[in-house]
Amino acid sequence: MTFEMYYNYFYSFVLLLIQVYKGSGGIDKNAGSHLLYPPHIWGFEVACVVIFFIFQNFRLDHGLRANRNENRNGMVALAFFTLFSVILYLYFTFLTTYVLIVEVIFGIIGLFFPAVELVISLINIHSLGAQRASLA
After folding, report:
1. Fewest CB within 10 angstroms: 60, 89, 113, 125, which?
2. pLDDT higher for 135 or 2?
3. 31-40 contacts: CB < 8 A, separation 24 or more?
4. Is the Cα dihedral 36, 20, 29, 108 positive or negative?
């Protein structure tokens, strides 16, 4: 999870730079056109990047604490938060108003981390449940 924390800072910074580029009417030199946003959409997408950054930091910190304490309920919450994180990654990768290739590349790289974390957290939830059952 530590590497994903670093990637979260990098990814969020890159997303903000891309949003600034898009919001300033980024020029497509091949088509000779500008990116024109509908009213209030650009602000919404920038706000989503900020919310995503805060949510990711919360999710990763919660996951680290739940894993260190071997807290089964915390791991279940981490799995739920991870699913929400995957939805946000998919939104930024494929569903924003204007999707650039660089966003798709960084988004697919970013999707790798929560996918692996989800599998590992489900394994941990199962093993902690089995461990609890054997102690009872």
Report:
1. 125
2. 2
3. 35/98, 37/97, 37/98, 38/97
4. negative
Closest CA to 8 of 98, 96, 131, 111: 111
How large a percentage of the chain has pLDDT more than 70? 90
Structural tokens at position 77: 């919450």
- Residue 66 neighbours by CB distance under 10 Å: 22
d(CA 63, CA 57): 10
Instruction: Tell me the whole-structure pTM to 2 decimals.
Output: 0.83
Virtual torsion, Cα 70, 74, 75, 80, nearest 10 deg: 180
List Cα–Cα distances, 133 to 121, 125, 127, 129, 130, in angstroms.
Answer: 18, 12, 10, 6, 5
